[in-house]
Write a structure and sequence with these properties.
Elements: E1 4-8, H1 15-22, E2 28-34, E3 36-42, H2 46-52, E4 56-62, E5 69-77, H3 79-88, E6 93-99, E7 105-111, H4 112-140, H5 149-164, E8 174-177, E9 199-204, E10 207-208, E11 211-212, E12 215-220, H6 225-247, H7 253-266, E13 270-271, E14 277-280, E15 316-325, E16 330-337
Parallel strand pairs: 1-7
Antiparallel strand pairs: 1-5, 2-5, 3-4, 6-7, 8-9, 9-12, 10-11, 13-15, 14-15, 15-16
Helix pairs in contact: 4-5, 6-7
Domain Peptidase M24: 124-305
Protein name: M24 family metallopeptidase
InterPro entries: AIG2-like_dom, Creatinase/aminopeptidase-like, GGCT-like, GGCT-like_sf, Pept_M24, Peptidase_M24B
Amino acid sequence: MPDQLLFSYGTLRLPGVQQARFGRELPGRADGLPGFRLETVTITDSAVIADSGSGLHPVAVRSDELADVVEGTVFTVTAAELEAADAYEADDYTRFSLALRSGEQAWVYIDAATAEALRVERLVAAQANAEALFAEVGRRGIIRAGVGERQASQEIRDLANELFGTTRHWHKRIVRAGPNTLQPYRENPPDRIIEADDIAFADFGPIFAEFEADLGRTYVLGEDPVKHRLAADLPQVFAAGRAFFAEHPELTGAELYAEIGRLARERGWTFGNIHSGHLVGEFPHEKIDGADIESYIAPGNTTPMRRTDRLGRRCHWILEIHLVDAERGFGGFYEQLLDL
């Protein structure tokens, strides 16, 4: 990980704390955090108290007054120093990426409740942008007969840039049509020209304000009633899966995957992937580890989905529905936030 910007308004600015935690004093520059104000939190960690010299520390909370600004200092820190700062800050704080008065984006330790509220707001806003993008894809007829999947993907990328400015994507951009719709995400089938009676899907992961949106939608060209039925079943299976998640507080990834498979079979389809979703959050700070089964809604994940991550933040999930008709050679795809 490259060096990071860290904004401090409290005891991390003290030379003694920096020497104790980083082994050096950090050069910094003044800046401010708009829209926040300071409160006080009581620290009980004896090591933190020993380094800082006090059990009372300031904590930044979101303010209702737009004119409020928390003054502080921006430091450039290494990945190891950022981890050391994480260890220093108590459970009352959560590290969050925020825009400073200067316009720079920096890590800031703020109160946990504010951080979670901001994470939810940004995840939901990112998804809303992605939904607007795919709605416009339908209105403009980007998924159409006679163009290649790769070209359609590039046109969706260009549309995202037109609507939202230059937009990064956190995973490969996918458009698949016809028999290629049988292939799950990890596969890379050859580019195919979309045909007049195809079913096709798009799977994009645009990043908005450093938060991932992961959205999949299916489009049916022509009048094939079975393809239209599959496309109609996708959001229904998603809704049923979301309801099952809501009804079972201790649900594991393996249990939800099994239920999604049952819902697919109930409607006459086969589930088309080895998992049915994954964790989602900030980018690139929560890239999904392909070797970590606990990051997926999948067989073998016996960990409750309602949990916190290593930084104490609530886990949020994307639910993926990939239904296929292997006999007729097509499938469809639908995904979005599960728990928000």
